[in-house]
Structures are given as structure tokens and as C-alpha cells.
Amino acid sequence: MKGILSTAAALALMTALAPAQAAEKWDMPLAYSATNYHSENAALFAKAVTEATGGELEIVTHPSGSLYKGGEIYRAVRTGQAPIGERLMSALGNEHPIFEIDALPFLASSFEAAHDLYLASRPAVEKILDEQGLVFLYAVPWPPQGLYHESPVNSVSDMEGAKFRAYNAATARLAELMGAVPTKIEAAEISQAFATGVATSMISSGSTGYDRKIWEHVGYWYDVNGWLPKNMVIANKDAWDSLDDETRAVIRGAAAMAEQAGWAKAEELSTWYAEQLAANGMTVEGPSDQLKADFEKIGEIMTKEWLERAGDTGQSVVDAYRNK
Ligand code: PCA
């Protein structure tokens, strides 16, 4: 009797455990709002993987920095606390200057140029990620970056002393070169920073201004159109290596789809976001000739400084991009 019972108990236990052992769940931290197209795109990617693997690998997205804040995601994935995640590439300049290449003012300022720059830099990015125990999956751009400010800006000298919200070292340096005072603040904390007067200006896309209802705090957006920074999705290499070939192929396929859809979406929404800023009462304009010239000068300084830091790797990527 005792033997039969324990056999039955063992069987019940095995059936209960079997699916749980076979199926795996990957939590995927994201830094930006659930309704932002990057997050929606990542959610579609996650759903595609979950469905194509029949639930064997379930990917669950956690937007708005709810699982890890933007500034923590890279480390979380690298150390394996999260198997997969999305991070703004240009915020990773401390890891390697190559990650900042898409935040250099006026190096690539259209979607087409940004895509060329992406293709030229991807091999170097993949190599560096690999050395850090990470697997590159896909990257999607933000729309072109513009200047948000509380009052009209005709030249960079109008930015003197402004409290400037920066999202990476490059935008902090840009603020310094404008004579503004930078503070690094993640997108999720923008509303609070502007509401409390910690920041009064920033450079970002129409997308982030729209997500954060920036018209509640500032009245002007100048479409400087200087660069298109990207978010990338990366996986932890140990987690990746633990998957079978079939599952990895499914992820690669879903990543390629997400990348293509994401680039198309960013471009499609770019004008729409600017229209929404205007519809909510903001003055939305191109930069004055003076402001544009000032930014171009700053861009030259920043590119020169970056090339000094990025060495041969940086130079060869810039060459590959320019000789395309
Ligand atoms: N939005 C992000 C990065 C670039 C962008 O357009 C942000 O402001 O944090």
C-alpha cells in the first residue's frame, strides 16, 4: 500500500513538475512607458517568441522601469539578474565609446543616414557586447532630437545657465558646451524633474516629450534634427547559451521582425509626435540659422572629442559609414 501510494505521489509530482521544468520565463525590463512604440514593439517581440515556442519560452516585458530602472538594465542583463532587456545605447559610453556613436550631433541626422550608421557600427557593437557576456538582438531608433525650453531660443547663448536634463554623457557634454547646467535624469523621472524645477530644458525626441506631457512645463520645441539615438535589446550570454538552437532561431527571427517594424514605426510617428506637441499648445519650429550653426559647431567639437576616445575602432566605423 505504502509503495503504491508513493508511486502515485511520485507520478503526480512528475506531471506537475514536467511542464514547469520544460517551460522557461524570461522577464524583460524596459525603461520607457508601456504606450511608447519601443515598449509596444518589445511586447510584440515577446509575444511572437512566446507563441512561436508554444510557451516553452515565455518572454514578459516590464515597461516604465518597473523591474529595473533605465540606468540599471544593462548591468542587470550583464550579471544575469535579467536574461534580456532594452537599453538606450548611447547611455553606455562608460562601457565603450562605440555605444555613443548615434548621439554625436549631425553625424547622421536622417532615418536613412542613421540606418547606415547603424549597419556600419553593428559589427563593433556586437563584438563588444560579446566580450561583456551579452548577445545583441535588435536596435530601434528614437525620432530626431530637438531642443525643449521654457522660453524662446534663438541661439545657444539663450541656454546660458539653463537647468538641462541630460540622458547620457553626450547630452551632458552638449549642455556644458551650450553653457547650460546638466543633470542626468531618466525619461521615467522627467515629469517630476520639470514639475519641481530641477530641469527647465532638455534635448529629446517629440516621442519622449509627448509621453511625458512636456507641454505642462515648457512651451518650445526646436526640431534641431541632430541625431537619432537607438535603444537596443540584449540578452545575457549564459541565458542565451542555455537555449536550444530552435528557440534561438525563433528569437533571432522575432528580433529581425521587431527591428524592421520598429524603424518603420519611428519614422511614421516622427511627424505625428511633433504635431501632438503643437496641438497641445507648444511652439514647434525649426532652429534659427544661428542656432543651427551653433549646434553644428558643438557637433564638430563633440565628434572630435569622441574620436579621440574611441580610437581606431571608432575611426574605422566612421570611415565605413562615410565610405558607404
Ligand atoms: N528619448 C529618450 C532618449 C532619446 C529620446 O528621444 C530620453 O529622452 O530619455
Q: What key attributes describe this structure?
A:
six-stranded mixed β-sheet, alpha/beta, 10 helices, globular, binds pyroglutamic acid
Folded structure, characterized:
With 324 residues, this protein is α/β, with parallel strands linked by helices. The protein has a single domain, classed as Bacterial extracellular solute-binding protein, family 7 (D-Maltodextrin-Binding Protein, domain 2, 3-Layer(aba) Sandwich), CATH 3.40.190.170. Helix content is 50%, strand content 17%. It is built from 10 helices and 11 strands. Strands 7-6-8-5-9-11 form a 6-stranded mixed β-sheet, with helices on both faces. A 3-stranded antiparallel β-sheet has the order 3-10-4. Strand 1, helix 2 and strand 2 form a beta-alpha-beta unit. The protein is globular and about 80 Å long. Bound molecules: pyroglutamic acid. The site of pyroglutamic acid (PCA) has 9 residues, from helix 7.
Helices and strands in order:
Elements: H1 2-22, E1 24-29, H2 37-52, E2 57-62, H3 70-78, E3 84-88, H4 111-131, E4 134-141, E5 146-149, E6 163-166, H5 169-178, E7 181-184, H6 190-195, E8 201-204, H7 206-211, E9 220-222, E10 230-236, H8 237-241, H9 245-279, E11 283-285, H10 289-322
Parallel strand pairs: 1-2, 6-7, 6-8, 9-11
Antiparallel strand pairs: 3-10, 4-10, 5-8, 5-9
Helix pairs in contact: 2-9, 4-10
Structure, briefly:
The protein is an alpha/beta fold. The chain is built from ten helices and eleven strands. Strands 7-6-8-5-9-11 form a six-stranded mixed β-sheet, with helices on both faces.
